[in-house]
Design brief:
46% helix; 100 residues; Alpha-Beta Plaits; 3 helices; alpha+beta
């Protein structure tokens, strides 16, 4: 399954800044959460980016995002989210199922 979240860049923010944060802070943090997720980031020409989480299965997502280990992971992730929120604003989210 793939989770998609569209974000609008704040004024003066570049896609390079967002990509750098994802590469340097978000991807390493998610690597500590689960080896069953691959992150992606895509830019649109309208000043938005789409953050992607490609999970091996819905069950893998559920297992990774429950329990006390997830609570600790989330608490450690909050400073990264604060950085993220300084760069972008949430627009919409959706999920898809991988067929091939």
């Amino acid at each position: 399954m793939v989770l998609h979240k569209r974000w609008r860049l704040h004024d003066g923010v570049t896609t390079d800044q967002v990509a750098r944060l994802v590469a340097e802070r978000v991807v390493p943090h998610y690597a500590r959460l689960s080896d069953q997720v691959v992150l992606g980031l895509e830019a649109d020409e309208d000043g938005t980016v789409v953050a992607l989480q490609r999970w091996s299965s819905r069950e893998a997502l559920a297992a990774a995002t429950s329990g006390t280990a997830y609570d600790r992971w989330w608490a450690a992730y909050l400073p990264v989210l604060a950085e993220w929120d300084r760069l972008v604003s949430f627009q919409e989210e959706w999920e898809t199922t991988v067929l091939l």
